[in-house]
Amino acid sequence: MTDLDALVRLISDAPTSWHAAEYVAREVVAAGFTRLEETQPYPATPGGYVVVRDGAVIAWIQPEAVSNPSTDSATTPHLPSFRILGAHTDSPGFKVKPSPDTTTAGWAQVGVEVYGGPLVNSWLDRDLAFAGRLVLRDGTTKLVTTSAMARIPQLAIHLDREVDRGLALNRQHHLMPIVATALGHPADPAESSGGILQAIAEEAGLSPDHIIAADLMLADTQPPALLGSAQEFLAAPRMDNLVSVSAGLSALLEVAHQPEPGLIPVLAAFDHEEVGSQTRSGAAGPFLEETLTRIQRSLGIGVDDTPRVRAGSWLLSADCGHVVHPNYVGKHDPDHHPHPNHGPLVKINANQRYTTDAVGHAAVAGWADVAGVPLQEFVSRNDVPCGSTIGPIASTRLGIPTVDIGVGLLSMHSIRELVGVKDPGYLTRLTTAFFRQ
Known about the structure:
Elements: H1 3-13, H2 17-30, E1 34-36, E2 47-53, E3 56-62, E4 81-88, E5 93-104, E6 107-115, E7 128-136, E8 141-145, E9 178-181, H3 196-203, E10 211-220, E11 225-227, E12 233-236, H4 239-256, E13 263-270, H5 287-298, H6 306-311, E14 314-318, E15 321-322, E16 345-347, H7 358-371, E17 376-378, H8 390-398, E18 402-406, E19 408-410, E20 417-420, H9 423-436
Parallel strand pairs: 1-2, 4-13, 4-14, 14-18, 15-19, 16-17
Antiparallel strand pairs: 2-3, 3-13, 5-6, 6-9, 7-8, 7-10, 11-12, 12-20, 16-18, 19-20
Helix pairs in contact: 1-4, 2-4, 4-9, 7-9
């Protein structure tokens, strides 16, 4: 399976962050990793391990335990170092409200809340599914993805002759998806619809009475597709940031066959990056720090050695960036025009919205050279606000040297983003070299 095939499979199977976390866990377990619960002790036995926290997942390859590490020696070759690929599993979109069913003018609609910063106009007139997790009466959780059930219809141009001058969408009134006709329901209440949760439960083979609560998102039903006159591009939903998750997963499985002594490769894919990361499963939460600490303890490394271990470690914050847009060239820095299929971006910002400095830039260049991967530089125009990533958040919390990189996209935060077909493979090769150096 090629890197592009692996990415398409992940995108197709993971319409939400909860699906993505479970997908990663399932893939590494199939490759021989052991799934751990956070409530159990972490073993000292060498091998691959994975733990899931809601929509976040951390997987790693554990080396042999360290025997009596010296805290007096100036050099500590016996202390391992972490090589962490940080990514995120969530994407901007629409989350279903807790009491979702409503009717307007004879239409049955579903109340949704905007999640993060989607390009909301790109969600209009799409065939949409519901996807997420259901919490059942017995305390278990079930992941679901429905068939196409919803659509956010755009107003016809005949009813808004000014639409070509600028589409104005009120997030409360204009983005409510339709799911059925409210008029014409059976007269017998026993035969009438029980709302969207009942329809979702029926597709999942469940009784609606068994569902206590739900986390549900709208999801695109159009599959990923190659396009372009030379088939140079992949169009798909959620590439920000499943491209990085896929690259980290493929690289971790590659190095699992022959891990590098003294290095602990880690894939850390967080949830809630699109809304600030300030959650227990986000990069600002304790998930990664707790996991690294527990790995150290299982290896016999004391807390006093933590600063030394982290000082010798690296975190690659892998999140998508922007290639130059041919219709809006003026929105880009005139001296930095990244292009698709020309390699990952090293993301740089003077105000530390990205963490890359000269030392980190040189380190990435070294890993890319080993991997035979081209690199590009991304920097924003001074008068165009710069986005940010998990990089500054995680490096502030952990003190681990961090570099921001990522694959360049067009149409970032659209329901369907566009990437060059070579770039996901470049990122996988770069990450593989990073896990081994």
